[in-house]
Write a structure and sequence with these properties.
By secondary structure, this protein is mainly α. It has one domain. Helix content is 66%, strand content 0%. The radius of gyration is 12 Å and the shape is globular. The two termini are 21 Å apart.
């Protein structure tokens, strides 16, 4: 079990995003929705996962869907607010959002 991010460092945020990608990929329905949203093929993900902006996009995808966010948070034991902060750290955007 991962510890929650206390101060969202870029490396910790990237690690969280990789976990989010694994969470998405573990379920065919989640993966299908992600691929449809990104326009990527399954073979493109491995290469794209090395890019910080792609990882920010993974967290964008997770945080844009409350049920997906809460499912990922429950699966990983992260507080949903930490996931939102990690997304902000990777995207460079700073904003506050109410997260359940």
């Amino acid at each position: 079990m991962e510890k929650p991010l206390n101060s969202t460092s870029r490396k910790a945020a990237e690690s969280l995003a990789i976990q989010a990608l694994s969470f998405i990929a573990a379920d065919p329905d989640r993966l299908g929705r992600f691929l449809a949203a990104t326009g990527m093929g399954p073979g493109d993900i491995r290469v794209a996962a090395r890019e910080p902006l792609f990882l920010a996009g993974v967290l964008d995808h997770i945080t844009a869907d409350e049920s997906l966010l809460l499912g990922f948070a429950a699966d990983t034991k992260f507080d949903p607010r930490e996931i939102v902060r990690a997304q902000s750290a990777l995207s460079g955007r700073r904003y506050e959002r109410d997260v359940p």
